[in-house]
């Protein structure tokens, strides 16, 4: 047995353990599926620390054979980083190809982007932290594996970035990933084109030339998904546009050749528009735009991407902590507290309009600011900002 095979042996999980954890691959434990196969949630036995895990059962018809499976195992078993999904073990009994990883409680980024109630719950600061973690994980793949090798993910997308219980980003799914030589600055791999269409680097798609900058391009697309709250492969009306468009087309139309945004607020998710600091938002989108540059050599390094996201996060956290922001949020909360539901004017007994189950009464109404109080609070906030600007 080779040394790599010996290293993998300690990760082997018996098939009976997998079957017990998934209840014989029951549909009740199924949490995901695709061309690659199926993903189940399961709880391992005491021998495996009773850990809740994600169990990916690969489909042999999905294009991955024994050699590819073995290569993926050797790759992911060597990863050790907080922003890379933790590899737990594998099973290859009875011709199975099963990979067991840590379970990410908050699922994938694309899951949040697909559901308005989910993406609405992510603040701008949280989105920045998620992107920062993912960028650090990607940087580790490109430069943290020793002097002689790097991994190019080849399928960076919101569906392959998971979130744990603390909303910490975890890069996953290395079935398409390739090793490259890190000691060559312009290292590239000539390979059959693979990946996900809307996230794919056009240079790689046209020339079959895979580089670390290909991952940077894909990550830039994910960044725009996060700032716009829109999946790149779904058409949507942006701003005042009546015609639905794809996100990347809008990005190209908003930013000109001089990287000067024509209308950057066109790309902002309306759920964060009233709370995001626009300097933070603009800084983030500008580095995302650099990532999706059609010229390979003009794309930023991941070190630069991380630095710019950190700067955007610092700006946003200062904004969130400012007395002005807290004061206005408090005023807004009290103004809309227990807001009455609008009643149908045509209902019989229209005199009860506004007195439905959601309407405030008595003490609830008194809990609100009067209009004069609202004006006073806003004037105080404006005066505070003016004084801050004088001191700056």
UniProtKB/TrEMBL annotation:
InterPro entries: ANXUR1/2-like, Kinase-like_dom_sf, Prot_kinase_dom, Protein_kinase_ATP_BS, Ser-Thr/Tyr_kinase_cat_dom, Ser/Thr_kinase_AS. It comes from the Eukaryota. GO terms for molecular function: ATP binding; protein serine/threonine kinase activity; transmembrane receptor protein tyrosine kinase activity. It is an enzyme of class 2 (transferase). One of its GO terms (cellular component) is plasmodesma. Residues 343-365 are annotated as: Disordered. Residues 25-313 form the Protein kinase domain. ATP binds at residue 56. Keywords: ATP-binding, Kinase, Nucleotide-binding, Serine/threonine-protein kinase, Transferase. It catalyses: L-seryl-[protein] + ATP = O-phospho-L-seryl-[protein] + ADP + H(+); L-threonyl-[protein] + ATP = O-phospho-L-threonyl-[protein] + ADP + H(+). Transmembrane segments: none annotated. Its EC number is 2.7.11.1. Belongs to the protein kinase superfamily. This is non-specific serine/threonine protein kinase. It comes from Lactuca virosa.
């Amino acid at each position: 047995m080779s040394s790599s095979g010996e290293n993998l042996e300690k990760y082997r999980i018996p098939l009976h353990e997998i079957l017990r954890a998934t209840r014989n691959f029951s549909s009740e434990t199924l949490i995901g599926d695709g061309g690659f196969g199926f993903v189940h949630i399961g709880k391992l036995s005491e021998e495996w620390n009773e850990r809740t895990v994600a169990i990916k059962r690969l489909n042999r018809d999905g294009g991955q054979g024994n050699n590819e499976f073995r290569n993926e195992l050797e790759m992911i078993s060597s990863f050790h980083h907080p922003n890379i999904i933790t590899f737990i073990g594998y099973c290859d009994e009875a011709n199975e190809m099963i990979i067991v990883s840590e379970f990410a409680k908050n699922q994938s980024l694309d899951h949040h982007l697909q559901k308005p109630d989910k993406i609405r719950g992510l603040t701008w600061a949280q989105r920045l932290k998620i992107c920062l973690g993912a960028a650090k994980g990607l940087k580790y793949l490109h430069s943290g594996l020793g002097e002689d090798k790097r991994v190019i993910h080849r399928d960076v997308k919101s569906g392959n970035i998971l979130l744990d219980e603390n909303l910490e980003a975890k890069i996953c799914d290395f079935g398409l990933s390739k090793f490259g030589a890190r000691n060559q600055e312009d290292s590239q791999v000539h390979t059959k084109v693979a990946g996900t269409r809307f996230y794919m680097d056009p240079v790689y798609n046209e020339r079959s030339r895979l580089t670390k900058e290909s991952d940077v391009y894909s990550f830039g697309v994910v960044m725009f998904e996060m700032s716009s709250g829109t999946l790149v492969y779904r058409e949507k009306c942006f701003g005042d546009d009546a015609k639905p468009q794809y996100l990347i087309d809008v990005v190209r139309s908003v930013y000109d050749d001089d990287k000067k945004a024509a209308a950057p607020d066109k790309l902002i998710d309306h759920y964060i528009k009233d709370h995001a600091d626009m300097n933070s938002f603009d800084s983030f989108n500008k580095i995302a735009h650099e990532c999706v540059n059609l010229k390979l050599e003009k794309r930023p390094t991941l070190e630069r991407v991380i630095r710019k996201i950190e700067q955007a996060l610092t700006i946003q956290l200062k904004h969130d902590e400012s007395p002005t922001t807290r004061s206005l949020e408090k005023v807004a909360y009290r103004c809309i507290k227990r807001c009455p539901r609008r009643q149908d004017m045509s209902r019989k007994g229209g005199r009860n309009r506004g007195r439905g189950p959601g309407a405030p009464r008595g003490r609830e109404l008194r809990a609100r600011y009067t209009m004069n109080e609202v004006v006073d609070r806003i004037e105080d906030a404006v005066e505070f900002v003016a004084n801050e600007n004088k001191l700056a």
